Amino acid sequence: MEISKVLQNTAKFFIYLAVVSPLILAGSLFFPFINGKVLLFRISVELAFLFFCLYLLYIKKLPNLKLLKNPIAISVAVFALVFLATSLTGISPHASFWSNFERGEGAFQILHYVTFFFLLISLFNTKVEWRRLLIFAVFISFLVSIYGLGQWIELQIRAPEEMFKYTINTGGRTSGTLGNPSYLTGYLLFNLAFIAWLIFAGGVKKYFKWFLAFLIVFELGIFLTAKTLAAILGLATGFLIITTICALKIYKTSRSAFLSSFLIVIILGSVFYSFSQIDLYKRLQPRLWTWGSAISGIIENPILGWGAENFSQVFDQYHNPNHYGGESWFDRTHNIFLEYLISGGLILLIAFLTMFFFYYKKMFEIEKDWLWPIFFVVPLTYLIQGLTLFDVLPIYVAMFLFLAFFIHYSEDFSYGEWSKEDQSEFNWSITYKSAPFIVFVIFLLYFGNYLPFRKNQLLAYALRANNINEAIERSKNIFAFYSPVGQQEAYESMGRNFVIYLEGAIRDKVKIDPKNTAFLEVMNLNETVFEEIKPRLVGVKDFYLNALWNIAAFRVSGETLYLDKAKVVLDELLIIAPKRIEIIIARLNVAKLERDQEKEMELVNKIDKIRPDILPSLGYIKQ
After folding, report:
1. From residue 296, how far is each of 330, 333, 341 by CA, in Å?
2. Are 383 and 340 in contact (CB under 8 A)?
3. Contact 487, 454 (CB under 8 A)
4. Strand, helix or coil at 596?
5. pLDDT at 277
6. Sign of torsion, CA 620 560 569 512?
7. Is residue 422 classed as helix, strand or coil in its secondary structure?
8. What is the distance of C-alpha 578 from the center of its chain?
9. Which of 529, 526, 531 is nearest to 549 (CA)?
10. Which residue in 229, 264, 475, 587 is a FRET match for 83, CA 20 to 30 A apart?
11. Contact status, residue 579 vs residue 612, Cβ threshold 8 Å
């Protein structure tokens, strides 16, 4: 086999491996549902890119680049460039580019998604190649759904207080291997379209079509067990459109209207029943408060936004105090339209929507066969679901796989194979030319993957410490280890643990000597690491943690230096986030510890104006 063919097939292999990423669940890492997926996807895309570049060096004749001029492909490239540009102009370029362990997104990850997309449209050209890839993708979605079935079964048979024994679950709904029910529905949506194509136009054998038909029913069932409000609404809307189009296509008479009406009533009844099982007010209210904060931030920076991964700053600055008592720390808007507006302003949202504009423009140019209604509604359903969701790796992977497939599908797979003229022998001159690509990818593998992976391992290990001395030593190791991402989360996670240790001593009425070695080491970690990460912090969460850490240190040691530090931090935070109840209460506690009655009453009055209902729980009477 020619060397170029080996290189091409190797690049394809790593694309297949990237498609596996939604299935990965790495229980030993800090965020089991996220970190393993991100690492596998990045490594796979980087290696696929390397072997593809080597392939290009070996072929004698460059392929036809017409497909790269496709409007959808161009709009995807523009989206990536705008995302990168607005990330660099945001309030924290470091956070915008690298993101964190919890999300694994940012501009660095977006560049990987777009590289994945261009590798897809370049490496997979024929119908046979796409059939094989989509069968593999659908098989992965089947395994994801099988895990979701296991979660659903455990939810039915276990007692409410029991722990999950056989699966990992983040709540009371099905999430598969994705960690969030909303992620699961977004991911399955695109895979349902792939299954439909394989059944009706993929050229698979009849017995396999029966399996695929079963798979549609099975995955729709898993989709509904996720109980995702906007996803159900989007799916119902999609079914309504498909039903109407198909009825008109079949009958073209009044009977079509009757059939459509009948099926619409059934679908709307199903949607109504699904919604009746969900507490709409409870589910939507926090989102509405969050969207209000997001809109205020968008009004302040409408053109370029705040930069990706920086919504925490907006959320705190325009905080709605009604969040207190429930989920109170949001780093996402939970709406893809608001998310892109916050991240990159109008120009990023327009760049994002342009991809779908050209998609639908092409939709109305192609032949309207039986698959046309399905391909018409899939992006629409995705956008409806996005009203209460944000994009994450499984959804991005499925979406870019879908768009790449559609480019070839809409042209009836007419782009064909790339080049037939290959270098069949090893060539040293080409090897020299390949050196820059090899060095670049090795750098990415080390700096963008190994270092974050090792930091992640150290953090997960440190969190399993059995005592304070063990926690201190492991914390030193993790804080000393350099990685472009993870230091803030290491501080936050270990900081919470140290605050718990100190508060435990307070509850047990244990007094600690301010000169105690272990105590001094804990407080030194707080001081040095906080000063290191302070310039890159977004939002008030870690500042607030720093204040709590110092307050707890004062209460167990009596050292007023720590209380003074907490007071300075909290006073600064009250300027940034004046309606954050948590911060007001922390500052109130400082005033009580200082016996500053004037400040105490000032803060009580402040709470009375924005959340008077919580005063009794704090030991005060409503004013």
Report:
1. 15, 12, 11
2. no
3. no
4. coil
5. 53
6. negative
7. strand
8. 29
9. 526
10. 229
11. no
- CB-based contact 600:588 (threshold 8 Å): yes
CB neighbours of residue 160 within 10 Å = 6
Q: What confidence category does residue 232 fall into, taking pLDDT thresholds of 50, 70 and 90?
A: confident
The model's pTM: 0.93
pLDDT digits (tens, 9 = 90+) for 76-124: 999 999 999 999 999 999 999 999 999 999 999 999 999 999 999 999 9
Q: How far apart are CA 449 and CA 295, in angstroms?
A: 35
Residue for token pair 């979605």: 141
Q: Residue 63 corresponds to which amino acid? A: P
pLDDT > 90? residue 261:
no
Q: Which amino acid is at 51?
A: F
pLDDT at 76: 97
State both tokens at 564.
Answer: 């003074």
Q: What is the pLDDT of residue 433?
A: 76
Cβ neighbour number for residue 234 with a 10 Å cutoff: 25
Ordered DSSP codes for 222-286 = HHHHT--HHHHHHHHHHHHHHHHHHHHHHT-SHHHHHHHHHHHHHHHHHHHHHHHTS-HHHHHHH
Candidates 316, 323, 317, 334; CA nearest to 289 is: 323
Q: Which residues contact 506 (CB under 8 A, 6 or more apart)?
A: 552, 555, 556
**In the prediction, which pLDDT does 549 show?**
95
**Amino acid occupying residue 321:** P
d(CA 29, CA 553): 30
* 311: CB partners within 8 A, 6+ apart: 294, 297, 330, 331, 332, 333, 339, 342, 343
Place of tokens 């690298």: 98
Three-class DSSP labels, 434-450:
HHHHHHHHHHHHHHHHH
460-466: long-range contacts at Cβ-Cβ below 8 A with a sequence spacing of 24 or more?
Answer: 460/28, 460/29, 460/30, 462/490, 462/493, 462/494, 463/30, 463/493, 463/494, 463/497, 465/497
CB atoms within 10 A of CB 319: 28
Identify the pLDDT of residue 427.
Answer: 60
pLDDT at 344 over 90: yes
pLDDT greater than 70 at residue 494 = yes
In the block, which residue shows the tokens 């607030």? Answer: 544
Rounded to the nearest angstrom, the gap between the alpha carbon of residue 436 and the centroid of all alpha carbons in its chain is: 32
Spell out a b/e string for 403-421, using b for 16 or more CB atoms within 10 Å of the CB, else e: bbbbbbbbeebebeebbee
Residues near 458 by Cβ (< 8 Å), separated by ≥ 6? 474, 477, 478, 481, 490
For the chain, the straight-line distance linking the first and the last C-alpha, in angstroms and rounded, comes to 84
Residue 354 CA to residue 78 CA, distance in Å, equals 9
